[in-house]
Automatic annotation (TrEMBL):
Pfam families: SCAMP
Transmembrane segments: 159-179, 191-211, 223-244, 264-290
BP GO annotations: protein transport
Chief place of localization: membrane
Protein name stated in the entry: Scamp-domain-containing protein
Amino acid sequence: MSKPNPFDDPSNPFEDPSITSALTSHREEPAYQLETDPIHANSSSFAASTDDFTGATVRQFSAPEVDPFSTVDSPYLHGSNSSTPTPGHVSGGREEELLRKERELEQRERDLEQRQLNISRQGRQPNNFPPCFPFLYLDIAVEIPPQHQGVMNWLYREWLLFEITLVLNFIACLCVLFSHPPSVTSAPTDMGVALTEMFTHTAASFFLWYRPVYNAYMKEVSLYYYFYFVFNGFHILYTFYMAVGIPSTGGAGLILLVTLFSDGYILSGVFTLLASICWLVMGVMAVFLYKKVYNQYKFAGHTFKEAKQDAFIRMGKASM
């Protein structure tokens, strides 16, 4: 005969009268009564249910999903009147900048067309430069826009000062050659180099940096600006190099000046002093005008990519 299992309980503990009365009393308390919805009270789906919670509805409120990592302000945090940024607000500044550049470009095109119209009405102008042997036409008052004529006049003065400096430099070296100071052994070489530079550098400076910057202000072409920046940069370095006055370089500069005054050669020293002053003054002026031209280049919105496109276009036209 098997022994009875001590863990078997034939009675249901939930049918105990004390437990049943406790559960019934809690259900009848007002704190546990749910709100009765009269609309759903007579519904057939709820009437068929035998649950004690028949006719009761549970109201659930769902909040909109908000990304916790979003940088956009939530209207629940700052009120219903808070506005969220739109893509138009973000790109508004850039659009205004593009519109401003577009208006400036249209204005420059209108000015250029007006100048070309005035020139065509006047007919083909005769060549006027250089005065001794004119082979091209240059007129700052006619071809350069009014807002750039002041800078262009100063660039022309810089070029003229360069020619005067080359002449004074040659005269100083010639005086040193004739005075023949014993401490200066490179006088013949300096005079020959100065004579050569007086002719070659005159033409080179005109065609390599003065004429390009003239065309740059007249036509607003990026390629001409880059020609000026490159060759006028070399011109500035050459100017200060000649101001030093290293022997056998053709420069009547500071080293030669100190040597001549130390040996008592006053006349040669005076011409060398004038040439040294011209070299230094022209170098400072060139740096100042270089900065002015660069500011205009940046203000007009020119880029290196635009300069390359201009170069390719001109090479294509030349090959046709």
